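Hey, quick one: can you model this chain's 3D structure?
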Amino acid sequence: MRVPTWQVCRSLTTAGLLETVRRKDLYVVLILTILMVLGASAFRIFGVSGLEIFVKDVTFLAIGVLSTVLTVLIAARQLPDEVQRRTIYPLLARPITRGQLLLGKWLTAFVTASVSFLILAGTAYALLLLLGIPLKPIFGQYLLLKLMGIGWLCALVVALSVYLTPSANMTLSLILAFGSGLFGRLLLMAHWEHGVSALWLNLLYGVLPHYDLFDMGQKVVYDWSLVPWWVLSAMGLYALTSGGLYLLLGWLRFCKQVLG
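Sure thing. Here's the predicted structure for all 260 residues.
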């Protein structure tokens, strides 16, 4: 009798969180947040009057970089670690499909990376309040959109892990994550020469990953008003459709892959 998918996902997520604690990944996040607190608290010696924008900019830049790197590292090792430790064989010997295993590994990476991000964001929020720098309500939208981006990025990295070696996967994923904004700017420059009506250009822009669209850090830094909720809904739809497509492509490859 096949095990229900929700039970598989719950079991794998619980085991993945315990494995993450054993690996001390969350401890690394805590150390990084402590360093953020100590570094930013140095501004209290000189006062932060007139430096609020700079402090917030540094804080949210650090959150963006650390959360992205941790997400890629966590997601990239989910399937390769099971193969390397040969624990994937007893898993698949049970009434569990490869699709359920892939989905469970994505959920494990998403939950673990989200917890790490929320630790960083919560520490940053408390730190800024301690320094007398309040954040506008758009901070809540920033958290929501960033969680969408983490789920999207986990889908991309987990899918790539069945096509590439772990080192190649992490390298390519980091390039796509941090370089997505640069890709968009290059295409805008190409628009200036060829016109926005160029079909191939618009198709290329649609195919390329856009992880940068999930980051509203600069809007939080400059105290923007709330973004219309239909925009966040559209981003949620983009994350769901493109992330689901990545997992589908990963599943098609994983089903035919010879493990060993």
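One thing worth noting: The radius of gyration is 20 Å.
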